[in-house]
């Protein structure tokens, strides 16, 4: 009876976008949605993407046909090499299968669906960082998997809570799934160091936990694609079986084109490639009944770039443009707050990495920033640093200074 369906709350971040768009003040600052903005707060089409679009337009084979169920083969293979490394033994040993998905969200969903269908009963717990991208909880819960949380962030020091996380993983039941942010953790902007990743891997190995990597920001942490996949590569080298959700929304600026991939890596064994083939056959069934075949345009753009060494290196330059401007804005914001002698410590703004800063501002501060200063940011105190620029950073610092002093 649809009459009995209760009303669900609006998505907080999309509601924030609507509120921002409806605000007619000249001073509005949008620090909500995690999308790169240029110096003038405008969306940025990457120069490499412009080139790829021109190449595609001129290609006489360019059409709008259906892709195969698993997606564009040249995209899948290049996406696989990008996250695992072109020299990956798992690829050489045919232990990896890849499906093009509806961006990163679709990849998380496809993996979650596979687990919900084939994991032993009772279903394993899915451990998600606290805090995390809020949609993780939603996606795993929606396919009927029980969600638990592991501590990730120390509010007092605004750093990674290594002991909290490792203690929880130590006591997690064998066979549990652990969702790991491959790099540039959303929302905290705080990642484990390589030594901490090694420790996490050791505990997960000993406790037979299953890593599910979410990689939405490759190229945004260090600025280099081949450094930002350290954790994934390390876990593969350690012989784990792994699920990976990969998004090209942020790093190629292809947000609305929904280009992403789900990869499954079987652990090394004599029948690993047969396991991978069987998993791929089941993913085909799931993909067919969910979306039939994935969208073509974004995957074609990504494929042109990923398969051309010259464009690939130009893309790395674009990534440095984005990550460089974000870093510069972190520094400017910190300098402004220092200059105003804003109460509190603000080192975390420059120490955190990736697209976001977890400012530590309270929901009351966030509310006042919106009502009084027309600054739009997530309730959690997370800001998308790319929303700052030379024109608004001093204004935002003044606004923060004002609300924290009250
Ligand atoms: N995972 C994380 C951690 C994210 O932050 C995002 C985007 N906000 C995604 C996945 C998925 O993004 P998309 O579906 O746009 O690729």
TrEMBL record:
<dbReference type="InterPro" id="IPR000796">
    <property type="entry name" value="Asp_trans"/>
</dbReference>
<dbReference type="GO" id="GO:0030170">
    <property type="term" value="F:pyridoxal phosphate binding"/>
</dbReference>
<dbReference type="Pfam" id="PF00155">
    <property type="entry name" value="Aminotran_1_2"/>
</dbReference>
<dbReference type="InterPro" id="IPR015424">
    <property type="entry name" value="PyrdxlP-dep_Trfase"/>
</dbReference>
<feature type="domain" description="Aminotransferase class I/classII large">
    <location>
        <begin position="27"/>
        <end position="399"/>
    </location>
</feature>
<dbReference type="InterPro" id="IPR004839">
    <property type="entry name" value="Aminotransferase_I/II_large"/>
</dbReference>
<dbReference type="GO" id="GO:0005829">
    <property type="term" value="C:cytosol"/>
</dbReference>
<dbReference type="InterPro" id="IPR004838">
    <property type="entry name" value="NHTrfase_class1_PyrdxlP-BS"/>
</dbReference>
<protein>
    <recommendedName>
        <fullName>Aspartate aminotransferase</fullName>
        <ecNumber>2.6.1.1</ecNumber>
    </recommendedName>
</protein>
<keyword id="KW-0663">Pyridoxal phosphate</keyword>
<dbReference type="InterPro" id="IPR015422">
    <property type="entry name" value="PyrdxlP-dep_Trfase_small"/>
</dbReference>
<dbReference type="GO" id="GO:0004069">
    <property type="term" value="F:L-aspartate:2-oxoglutarate aminotransferase activity"/>
</dbReference>
<keyword id="KW-0808">Transferase</keyword>
<comment type="similarity">
    <text>Belongs to the class-I pyridoxal-phosphate-dependent aminotransferase family.</text>
</comment>
<comment type="subunit">
    <text>Homodimer.</text>
</comment>
<dbReference type="InterPro" id="IPR015421">
    <property type="entry name" value="PyrdxlP-dep_Trfase_major"/>
</dbReference>
<keyword id="KW-0032">Aminotransferase</keyword>
<dbReference type="GO" id="GO:0006532">
    <property type="term" value="P:aspartate biosynthetic process"/>
</dbReference>
